[in-house]
Amino acid sequence: MKTKHLLFTFLACVLFVVAKGQKYHSLPNSDATWIIAETGFPSEQIYSRLFLSSYLDDTLINSKFYNKVYYQYNQDTMAEYCGAFRNETDAVSYFVPPASEQEYVLRDFTKNIGDTIRDVIYHHDVDWFIVLDFVVDTVEYKQQGPYTTKVMYLSTVVPDTISPYHIDGRPMTWMQGVGSIGLGILNSYVLNPSLRSLDCMQHNDTIFCQGGDQNLVYTQGKCSYPLGIEEKANIVSRVQLQPNPFYNQIVLSRLPVHSPLTIKLINIYGQTVFTKVLHESPAEYTLHIDPNLPKGMYLMSITAHDKIISTVKIEKE
Known about the structure:
Layout: H1 2-21, E1 32-39, E2 45-52, E3 59-61, E4 64-72, E5 80-87, E6 92-96, E7 104-108, E8 116-125, E9 128-144, E10 147-156, E11 172-175, E12 179-180, E13 197-203, E14 206-210, E15 216-220, H2 229-235, E16 240-242, E17 249-253, E18 261-267, E19 272-278, E20 284-288, E21 296-304, E22 307-316
């Protein structure tokens, strides 16, 4: 009995020492960059970035300090404010969207397998979000330099809530101190078939994720746009549409020169509510929409040869 007691005490001491030697890191609150890669058409790599300024706690909302998050589509576009976040603790973060004072859960690493995380902000795109409940499917720990990084895999409590925006059967992935695999500091699945995902994440002069899916690293350096990508990004122009909000007509211009084009309207539940196939690609085209379509936000998806070449957020009035 005494031997067992001594063994138990020894093991407890070992675990205590190991735990004391591990560092768990929160999301950075200044001087950080997330490079997002997206495959366009035809197989063009488009790179955008989300970043924090070098100033700590640079905005005040409801008497709490937050850090502004900025988005830049490519190097030739102006950066835009896309929300603010704060770290409640090293494990819990909250996010406030633009033009709002309401905060939602951004990450919660205190949860474990089987736990439900409620009121999580989820981004279909940088400027289009919904609030969902997620359940933790799996948890694992990865060593990353001096840090032990907790990686969580989550799925929506209500199945198929955001289908078809993500790869079937693939959970949303959170990496402590890094963000989500789909959209960096913001929450998103990896998109399919355009495969938008985190390409690189850097804080100060250290890179923590590089080269795609869950490739955690700990190396000196800074994330930047890959050489030549800025020029490629300029080739891929975004489709213009008006009016927005719309009632029963949408005029599309700057359509890509590919045919056939499939145009879909998808609601926030992932349901396709309108489809139009264009066998020619005119300079301008008017869509006629059922005026009885419910009011709200929609995603217009334009595909060619089974590849998404443009997605635009639009509102039905």
